[in-house]
Amino acid sequence: MLPADLKLIAGPCSAESYEQLRAVAQQLDSVNLFAFRAGIWKPRTQPGAFEGAGAEGLGWMRDIQDEFGLNVLTEVANSSHVEKVLAHGFNMMWIGARTTSNPFSVQELADSLQGTEATILIKNPTNPDLKLWVGGIERLYKAGVKKVIAIHRGFSTYDKLKYRNLPNWQIPIALRAEFPGLEIICDPSHISGIANNVFEVSQKAVDLKFDGLMIEVHPNPAVAKTDAKQQLTPKEYLELLATLNVRSREAIDQEEIRELRANISILDNQVVEIFAKRMELVEHIGHYKKRNNIAIFQPNQWEEALAKFLKLSEDAELSKEFAAEVFKLIHQESIDIQSKILRNSDPGDSAS
Ligand code: PEP
Ligand code: MN
Fold it and tell me: Can you give the pTM of this predicted structure?
């Protein structure tokens, strides 16, 4: 059983047609939804991709609101969006992650929302910057917005680990400490990036006592115009709600250890790949030294490289003994590789 007051927001990533919205709303009719979501203006990474249904979609959303008695919400990124959303009688809207990253945009939105009665949900910025998120919320409060809810959707990184956007759970937890009464909803869809991980992120959010879940649901995710990989079918969403539970501390700890181990194993793979790349460069240097009759071991070069490595390790708070040992092993392996090259006669080398 889930906490009865858990705020559930569901709906497709993008509004694609009235029929598409209606199919989702109808199949989720048995769920006590806090709100029904769909993006109408979509922030796309590259131009030319589907950028949303635009103003026409607002009419579809209002019809869903009337027919199913649901609160509906969409993403707003500028004052013209706010004006249109309010004119269509929406009492909620969300500010997307890319917009929260830009204080000029958040201020423009706050100005256009002065004293509104509508509930404004604000996602975290795309970068893991707690202060920027706090600043966005402060701009809304200063503009007299009374009902503000935060949405945690994870943070983007260059290195893709398990998730599309890293959850960095400590950041929403720190946000809660900044604004003790503020409700925070988790968006497992954008954290996960794939439908298969939505359940475990949702369970984690429930374990951490988030106030709600915003999950993308599409009648046929395979043909979705945006975020096709991460959307659930209505059936999968209903199953997810039925399977999530309030778990014991012990179960939570076990899950955390499993997750840490999985991340360690991803990093171990990267360590091996980096060693392999390093040794490939060492081979190139070995051939160069052979062609040019340069001694393999260069004491000055070794001391300089060691000092640099130790300094980096110290800055990264690794123990000096560990760092020295690792570098010695790397260096020894490099010398062995180069010695082998020197011993072998290589036609390529003698020709040059
Ligand atoms: C969305 O909710 O569909 C969306 C674009 O989200 P975000 O701003 O978190 O990327
Ligand atoms: Mn989306």
Answer: 0.77
